[in-house]
Amino acid sequence: xxxxxxxxxxxxxxxxxxxxxxxxxxxxxxxxxxxxxxxxxxxxxxxxxxxxxxxxxxxxxxxxxxxxxxxxxxxxxxxxxxxxxxxxxxxxxxxxxxxxxxxxxxxxxxxxxxxxxxxxxxxxxxxxxxxxxxxxxxxxxxxxxxxxxxxxxxxxxxxxxxxxxxxxxxxxxxxxxxxxxxxxxxxxxxxxxxxxxxxxxxxxxxxxxxxxxxxxxxxxxxxxxxxxxxxxxxxxxxxxxxxxxxxxxxxxxxxxxxxxxxxxxxxxxxxxxxxxxxxxxxxxxxxxxxxxxxxxxxxxxxxxxxxxxxxxxxxxxxxxxxxxxxxxxxxxxxxxxxxxxxxxxxxxxxxxxxxxxxxxxxxxxxxxxxxxxxxxxxxxxxxxxxxxxxxxxxxxxxxxxxxxxxxxxxxxxxxxxxxxxxxxxxxxxxxxxxxxxxxxxxxxxxxxxxxxxxxxxxxxxxxxxxxxxxxxxxxxxxxxxxxxxxxxxxxxxxxxxxxxxxxxxxxxxxxxxxxxxxxxxxxxxxxxxxxxxxxxxxxxxxxxxxxxxxxxxxxxxxxxxxxxxxxxxxxxxxxxxxxxxxxxxxxxxxxxxxxxxxxxxxxxxxxxxxxxxxxxxxxxxxxxxxxxxxxxxxxxxxxxxxxxxxxxxxxxxxxxxxxxxxxxxxxxxxxxxxxxxxxxxxxxxxxxxxxxxxxxxxxxxxxxxxxxxxxxxxxxxxxxxxxxxxxxxxxxxxxxxxxxxxxxxxxxxxxxxxxxxxxxxxxxxxxxxxxxxxxxxxxxxxxxxxxxxxxxxxxxxxxxxxxxxxxxxxxxxxx
Length: 815
Description:
The protein has 815 residues and is of the alpha+beta class. The longest helix is centred in the middle third of the chain and has 37 residues, at 314-350. It is elongated.
């Protein structure tokens, strides 16, 4: 301990004597450690922390498997089958895939809330705490039972002022009375987020195969994941006997996955990739500081030799240098925590909005004990990493030779210069890897922006309206709302046209099976979207043949359907199909059954993802949707108003909302966005990854430039006498500059070769994040190599220019 304290005091005095060196080293490390702390904070919140439920390791998501992979959606019959597996599950819950909108009415402030329909065991599965009252019972979760509701703690506080007597009070949701039976505790975080929970009321005899639910179960004590999978496979065999068409493929079955894995989904790979990238930035920072310490160690060789001559052992000298490096690293970590906090705020400002488990506005991300422990571990390991080579160098001083030398001569040494050169080559290779990754994502960004989505997103305003409730359970009521709303909107100055739809482009639709009369193909599935007249006008989607929908395509008119080009090409030999009869929804459930529809038009393709090819799509008039489907759609989601304007769309938002309230009887609207925002949100995760990796690559390039500049500047200083001799013997300034620049370019060449080879292997991990470019894209590699070479040339030229100005007389006297 006494030796440690002595080393500590000596290290503090030594670092205090070199404030410039200490500041540069600490800032460099703080930048690298801070970036790692910020990314690790997100990784910690999303991947490492357990789910915020009691015994989260016992929670599993129930899924069905097909040849295409795992489907995490469920129908009522599947849920009824799964909850019978009581030998492995303590309880099973089903709930909406997304929290649909539901209107809180009956007061002076109509408001659209997020509501989730859940089965009675939902609260038991997730261990939801109860603040006041209770949750609903199994009897209340049956069809035909009175309507009850459970409130979130946030809604209870914000809308009802924490009224302790709210239990058994009646509120209007979607125009219907609901009795409040309880309020959940503030610690409960549901996914999806919800303001109210309503009974699912699943029919135990349902044959409805619409997949609009998710299912989660809690394993019984002692039951393993493998045992649960076996039970689910047995349940699949029983389900096949009852519904043979639903699990008809050879690989179709039921299974389970850990709920945490299901929640995280495909975010894990992207986050880990960013974590690896920021780790490379830290390595580059370490290399720079190691080079600084090496340069300092050569200057201190005489000091180390004297201490060695006075009896200091090699291990004592090595520990002294290591102590200094760890102190620098701890100081960098302390400052890095502050940088990390700012980095987390910056990440939340640019986050794509679809990162799970980070909470509302990133409230779940914090610098908790895991993050602080990670930062401390990184600091210590970093200090050892960049201090090890200087420590070994300092402890191997040649006492006799060093004491005979003086001044600059004592600082030379081929071994030290070779070591520093190797370190610079390493950071150049690492920087090149990051730069190639960043440019690949930048090219992906450009490629996505260059994709024609199939519609014109300019000057379109979108907003959601919840039609949940008895009033809009029939297509005729929705059709009347659309007519009234469209008439009012299109009478506004500045509005070009308006329409209503179940779904927005780039945000999906419903998948329904269909058959074509007289067509030999087996039953297949296509995207299904209900729209009103003027929909194609609003989005400026071309009608290539046939006609668009009109006012006569109502509930009393002949059943019609419009398909896109991809549908026509895929299912008709000549890519036409006008006049063909299509039957949609057969076998899904009684509410989906309908007579055949005639194809009356073929429209241009609209992508449902900019990075995906167009899918076959069927458009049906919103006035001709079956009443059962209307009620179901209104229950599980909101409808979308879309308005094309002559002006900037948000400038008419207040007028549009006023007219829609008048047309709907006072219903509120929510989630107001321009269509350009919708397009931007569809690529937000790609943009997020690109932004992060570009920042990391820019920092890496800057650090690499500093590293090569530092090495060249130090080399020029060490070779001052040599340069003086060369110039005295007739070398001109141009030759001297070329000599120094050539040394830097040799290092650049080695770093580039190593970096390109490494990048060819590592960028394959990014394949799922790329669009329109391959991981081994030659153009990207050439651009990055040229960029790094130019930066190296500039970093080497500045010391070379200084070397060419050396006065030979002064240089020959230099020590």
